[in-house]
Amino acid sequence: MSSTESALHRDSAVANREPEYINSLEVCIIGSARCRGRLRTVKSAETGCPLARRTSSGAARDTRVVVPNTRRAAAGGRANAGCAGNAIKTTKYTLLTFLPKNLFEQFHRFANLYFVFIVALNWMPSINAFGKEVAMIPVVVVLTVTAVKDAYEDYRRHLSDERINGAPCRVFRGGGGGGRYVREHWRDVRVGDVVHLSCDEVIPADVLLLRCSNARGVCYVETTNLDGESNLKRRRVARGPPDVVAAAQFIVECDTPNNQIDRFGGAVAHTDGRRVAVGNDNLLLRGCVLKNTDYVEGVVVYAGHETKAMLNNGGPRYKRSRLERHMNRDVVWCVALLLLLCVAGGAGSALWLGSHGDAELPFVPPGSEERDALARHGVQVFLTSIILYQLMIPLSLYVSMELVKLGQVYFIDRDAAMRDARTGCGVECRALNITEDLGVVEHVFCDKTGTLTENDMVFKKCTVGGAAFAQREREGEKVKGKNRDDVDPALYSTVRGITKDTLAGGSFPEKRAAADRMPPGWDPLQSGISPSRSDPDGSDRDDAWRHDVQEFFVAMAICNTVVVSKHPHRDRMDASGVVHDDDDVATTTTTTTTTTTKFESHFGFMPAIPRFIKRFKSSGKDPVVTESYRKNDDDGIAAVAADNDEAPYYEAESPDELALVQAACAYGVTLLQRTDDAVRVRLPDGSRVTFDLLHVLPFDAARRRMSVVVRAAGTRDPVLYCKGADSAVMTKLRADSRHARRVVDATMHHLDGYAREGLRTLCVARRALDPDEYAAWRPAQRAAETAVAGREGALLRAACAAETEMRLLGATGVEDRLQEGVPACISALRAARINVWLITGDKRETAVNVAYSSRVFAADMKLLHLNACTAEAAALQMRAYAEEIAESTPAPPGGYALVVDGHALALALDRGGDAGAAFVELASRCAAVLCCRVSPLQKGAVVRLVKDSLGVLTLAVGDGANDVTMIRTADVGVGIAGQEGMQAVMASDFAMPRFRHLARLLLVHGHWCHDRLARMILYFFYKNASYVFVLFLYQFHCMFSGQVMVDQIYLILYSLLFTALQPLAVGVFDRDASPELLLARPRLYASGATAYRPGSFWLNILDAVYQSVVVFYVPLAAFSPSDALGMWELGTLSTTACVCVHTAHLGVETRSWTAAHAASIAASVAVYAAVALLVSSICLTCNPPSNPYWVTMHVAARPAHWFAVTAAVVAAL
């Protein structure tokens, strides 16, 4: 048999023995279009290892082969040679490419191309308006300033790259028995390196997990830096026979680098042909943080820019503000005005020449063809005028706007009033181009949980078996779940009765029958939570109710995905790769006692690390609860085993789960340990009970509930515990008895009360599964868990099949308190005439209560409830409400507030009919809108509908991943850095630590930014147009010859230097009102939006026309014909008057004078005077035959000139 046939035979055997490999690798890799034929293995000539996989046709498959670098010498040193290094480079330029690449990018801007065209036009001999070199100054200055700014930004990116590339990690160096882990920088890591990572360490590259401190080969990673989610995601060591990769005699075959974060396939192949399949749950991605594990070790498969994180790096986001769009529209009008002036100049020149017939003209040589080519002469003057009037297009405005926005962002980021004292974090501007949009927001869409509220849940109330209980209130404190002074004493005494024997009683069928005979008025709280002693069945009913209480708290403790650990995870290896003895690390590090397993012996090239056997002793019996929340979408979370005497640490998938586990602990039911197949609980009497964890049915948006199927030790009947929203649980209950119906009715009554108090509610239910019924259901669940196609639908169907015929145990009420300052913030926004919409997934009663407490709704508002079930009913309801609002006289003092549920909103969002328009019309007539039971996609759809229908500027604010769609859809997105990860922040334009800072961000900084920038833009249009009009007026006195009366250096530097600093000072430092006044009188917010109205541009152009007439003719009229006012003298006089008038005009527009304003004016005037004196001193032959030599000194020496300038300034203003 040939070697190739042998390889094929071996592959066939592997396929029969390893179906898991075929499923994962074939889907991810073998399904490539380039590998349709049969696979064969090509071995390395040096090592005999399979280095690549090829099809029978010889085509290479999209597969990367990674050889551990400890074996590179055996592979001839050529292994992994074509793979990228781990150093990253996010900079755009290098020293060699900066100039050409930056110029290429800048010439994509129309204004820059326009001025390059002006420079080229000026080099034409027949059009040469002024010096060729001088004509290049504007574009050179603008390109230089922009290049310096781009270089500075790129340098900052370079520094960030250096910090990341210089981060330390531990890499295995050396081969054979002499290798060890050494400290390296991230930049030095290569594909094939084996790295050692400790808990809370950031993963430096995409690493295939080879070994883990956990006995089951399980670790967890937090992906906040990658996708914004703070959920813990489980990763496993690749399973297989212990000797599959012994002594590093293996290679890794995997996908080529790609940006699919959730897809990875490959295999670990041994030299003897045995293979172990690896998938996405074996890969640790760069940028994630290792959690809940002492240490892990793995081999790098992707590094640097080939990692999935870097391949998904989309770069900075860019938005264009509304003010910039309006400015671009007005720039088009400037182009139209420029063309109009140029056409007038060309036509005027041609008409003037034609009107003289054959008369001799001193400036036209005899016999010149210019008389006979009037059209050509007119075209030449037209092109010359384009050069002369180039200031009409405000090239420097674009650079000035970027500088001003950088200054505005600098002061926003450093506003101490918007810094959270608890976290030390302030507002972060992530989009630098839309600061001015903060000043014209008309609609604010905000989430509730975590945005308006703390997202720090506190267990407040519960109802069990129809009886309601409440936690004790203590002034200035809140219950965190581990303080038993806060618990309800009556309920606590009942829970204390939980023992192994009572839990082993199953569903108490005989006592449940007795409970069904309870009289309608029976209250379990009577006589110390006991029915009347005179009732012969009272003890049975009391025991049945007590059993419900016990099971209720057991369900609170185990029906979750809480991660349980015994202590902070530590590693015996220090940062330099040195492994310390037990005594050396006893005071600084702890781990759990486990034995060496197959996961620790797979890789012989790694030094064996003996387990640390000393234990960390907790000082208390109550659980230590961490304040970090973790979401998880796995089917259960494994944790480090907890010892009986040690206090566990909890990391919950959400604040709600953490609050419930804390409450169960407070009542004595303590979750001690969770593994893949078991849950361990400590009961109030100190005994421990272990439940076999058969299945975890995780929460999903369709079911809106989660369940666990467990079996208590010593029993054979499985039990399903379920918790979820009331609407999702109540429809799955079995209410076939009088008592069950009475419990459901009482619970619903209590839930309504909890909702009116603003509490978040969850229902808890159970179902005892018959063994035969469970045996029939289990194959469907297993098949759904392993399904490749249609997995989500199969899991949904299987879960729904089990979550039926349940018995209601009770419900919980958890308080999510409003953040400090939320009511005052929303009141200020509403006073500023900003419409506030509250969009939440909570039930209506809870959302309405929060709307009132947060002042989204006022007490004197009339609520309109839109809760129709059909499109026709929704249309009728909206029409009736619209008529009611139109006909109501008088209207309610606070106006109307609209409350919409998710189903009615789905009908209103139907763009195929008129429902959307009717909904927007109705909502626009209401003072506030509340949308409840809304999905994440509906949040984004609501924002888009309002934005497109009303044409308003929208702002969306949220804190979780479910708010990303809404944040991205709005014109301005604001992310709250809260408890639900950083995905909302990553998708936002502005990030802030607390919602209350939104008022200052909008009412103060937004108002300032828009007002300053709008006035600066209008000032640029005004001053440039005014100076151009002065030049144009001179054409009436020079027969439209294209001659100007000012020196070319004045024309070039006027906008770039003489009048550039003053508007920058206004754009960054000017304040039309103090922050205290703007916050005290929110109605002033709207005044900032009027700074740039549709007619503002033309008003400033008219002002420019008037002032240009004054500036030109007042000095001209100040001298009699006998004074012999020369052309350069008139030009110097006019330019001086323009500088003074434009500076004085901006001074009048300045609202608050600062040192920066005064310094900018003084510097501008000083620069103009210095340039004027310098030009007059050295220009002997600048513009022959007439030159401006000593003209400035001559003008400054004559009092009449100063009188003319003063008169022009007074008349112009």
UniProtKB/TrEMBL annotation:
Q: Where is the signal peptide?
A: none
SUPFAM superfamilies, alphabetized: Calcium ATPase, transduction domain A, Calcium ATPase, transmembrane domain M, HAD-like, Metal cation-transporting ATPase, ATP-binding domain N
Which family would the database say this protein is a member of? Answer: Belongs to the cation transport ATPase (P-type) (TC 3.A.3) family. Type IV subfamily.
| Species per Swiss-Prot/TrEMBL record | Priapulus caudatus (Priapulid worm)
Domain named P-type ATPase C-terminal: which ranges? 985-1213
Name of protein: Phospholipid-transporting ATPase
Task: Name its cellular compartments.
Answer: Membrane
The UniProt annotation puts the region (Disordered) at 503-543
Major place of residence: membrane
Gene name of the encoded protein? LOC106808378
Query: Could you tell me the membrane topology recorded for this protein?
Result: Multi-pass membrane protein
Give the PROSITE patterns listed for this entry: ATPASE_E1_E2 (PS00154)
